[in-house]
């Protein structure tokens, strides 16, 4: 029986994303093209470092609004914050407050790609009118291993319930699982869409706040995943490793994975210990168990219903929306 109080899906519900990006042209255009293909009504891109090639291509798409984060931009915020997380949140807040042109706005990163089972606008339109924040949970990409015959990538997920997550993580990743939150190198918190009708919202990385109070995000967009390409291969992992260890997602001030006794290591401590004891070879051993789509890992993930095959098909989307750059596509 249909609930008489349930809202009817509204195909006119408009949604958009905001991101602060520092990446090469291909990565920026992949990100924009993917979300244009999904039907994003607005894509607000803040270039943390100017990229004239990407800017020229993006200018051909009126739904994409580009802001170069130069001195003039930061002057309105009393200067450029040193930490990139602070720059991200200030830009997201600015986009939200300056007539974002959508009913819902999500704050995500350039290596994150929304993946819905049905149109995002339909999902958002079906939410109760008193729901102002909705969370999208991540899946994390695994590095391909002798898998070129199959389109797409393997992704891993994790159990929402904490006790089940600890048990499954230890079984899936026998050597390093006790130190990992769901087997992820990056966040498990996900990202949020926020209705744009709320005054004085401050975006953070994973939440929204109003006057210092966190907005409730108990509802999830269950039919949408957030595909996170955090460490596509070992070379990419190493390239970003030092920065992430000092200032990013492996930094020392982050909490370890929750454990009953609170005795776990956070990633900063774990990686530092591995590197001290075994150098790059130890980091490679970690990466092989946790991040590579080996047959053994895929089997363990599948046994716990935490394995997903997703073909983002970024090259085709970029060729569709930015044909002037098609000759540069090498993916």
From TrEMBL:
Pfam families: Glyco_tranf_2_4. It comes from Roseovarius nubinhibens (strain ATCC BAA-591 / DSM 15170 / ISM). This is Glycosyl transferase family 2.
């Amino acid at each position: 029986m249909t609930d008489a109080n349930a809202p009817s899906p509204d195909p006119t519900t408009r949604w958009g994303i905001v991101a602060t990006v520092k990446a090469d042209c291909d990565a920026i255009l992949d990100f924009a093209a993917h979300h244009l293909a999904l039907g994003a009504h607005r894509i607000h891109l803040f270039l943390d470092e100017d990229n004239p090639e990407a800017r020229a291509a993006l200018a051909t798409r009126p739904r994409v609004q580009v802001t170069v984060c130069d001195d003039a931009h930061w002057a309105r915020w009393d200067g450029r914050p040193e930490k990139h997380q602070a720059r991200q949140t200030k830009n997201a807040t600015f986009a939200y407050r300056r007539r974002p042109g959508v009913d819902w706005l999500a704050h995500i990163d350039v290596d994150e790609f929304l993946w819905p089972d049905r149109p995002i606008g339909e999902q958002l339109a079906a939410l109760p009118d008193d729901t102002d924040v909705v969370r999208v949970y991540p899946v994390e990409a695994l590095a391909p291993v002798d898998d070129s015959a199959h389109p797409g990538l393997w992704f891993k997920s994790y159990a929402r319930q904490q006790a089940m997550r600890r048990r499954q993580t230890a079984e899936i990743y026998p050597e390093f699982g006790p130190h990992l939150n769901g087997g992820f190198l990056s966040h498990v918190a996900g990202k949020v869409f926020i209705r744009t009708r709320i005054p004085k919202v401050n975006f953070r990385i994973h939440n929204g706040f109003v006057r210092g109070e966190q907005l409730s995000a108990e509802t999830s967009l269950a039919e949408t995943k957030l595909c996170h390409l955090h460490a596509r291969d070992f070379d990419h992992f190493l390239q970003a490793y030092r920065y992430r260890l000092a200032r990013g997602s492996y930094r020392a001030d982050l909490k370890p994975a929750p454990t009953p006794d609170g005795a776990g290591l956070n990633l900063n401590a774990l990686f530092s210990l591995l590197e001290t004891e075994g150098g790059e070879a130890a980091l490679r051993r970690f990466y092989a168990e946790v991040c590579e789509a080996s047959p053994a890992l895929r089997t363990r993930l599948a046994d716990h219903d935490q394995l997903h095959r997703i073909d983002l098909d970024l090259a085709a989307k970029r060729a569709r929306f930015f044909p002037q750059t098609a000759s540069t596509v090498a993916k």
